[in-house]
């Protein structure tokens, strides 16, 4: 993948979390049940589930220090 900011090649990798990877419109308390308002988008899916965790594929640009994630 080419970086949308500078056009350099990006390194493919993963962002992992035990309970799923989400983009949240607001900061939410990290508790067992999801609380809080605002829009929430789950980035990880079960296809990467391993060892009880979740992961989402992400591309990193070393030059810009940016990470790009495709939302399914
Ligand atoms: Zn870049």
Summary, kept brief:
This protein has 72 residues and is mainly β. 0% of the residues lie in helices and 43% in strands. The strands form two sheets. Strands 1, 4, 5 and 6 form a four-stranded antiparallel β-sheet that branches. The protein has a two-stranded antiparallel ribbon with strand order 2-3.
Explain what you see.
The chain is mostly beta strands. The chain has one domain (11-68). It is 0% helix and 43% strand. It is built from no helices and six strands. The strands form two sheets. Strands 1, 4, 5 and 6 form a four-stranded antiparallel sheet that branches. Strands 2-3 form a two-stranded antiparallel sheet. A hairpin with a 4-residue loop joins strand 5 and strand 6. The protein is globular and about 40 Å long. 8% of the residues are buried. The model has no long low-confidence stretch (mean pLDDT 84). It binds zinc ion.
């Amino acid at each position: 993948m080419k970086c949308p900011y500078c056009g350099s090649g990006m390194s493919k990798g993963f962002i992992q979390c035990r309970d799923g990877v989400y983009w949240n419109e607001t900061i939410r308390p990290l508790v067992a049940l999801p609380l809080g308002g605002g829009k929430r988008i789950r980035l990880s899916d079960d296809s990467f589930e391993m060892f009880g965790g979740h992961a989402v594929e992400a591309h990193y640009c070393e030059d810009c220090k940016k990470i790009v994630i495709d939302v399914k």
